Amino acid sequence: MRGRTATLGYGVQRLRRGRTGVGLGEPDLREFDAAISRIEAAPERWAIVQGDIRRYLMRRYPYAIYYRHEEDCLRILVVKHHGRHPEYWKYRIGE
Length: 95
Known about the structure:
3 helices; 32% helix; alpha+beta; 5 strands; YaeB-like fold; single chain; five-stranded mixed sheet
């Protein structure tokens, strides 16, 4: 996805900051950044969950990244912990 941008929303900011505001450690952020790189490399690879929204399951952490692959960018909609209600992500994006 060279030349394209990823739009990071509230969920990403919260993941970086953490629930307590302290933030994640460096290994956690590296894993998150690696996940975004994998999505950017092949954005259509992961499962469509509704309409044009796709879901990427992080490998080492209990989070799912919900995103849209748009013409010139990757729009991260929600970063959801697996402990949340399964429909939580719909609430976060207003659907």
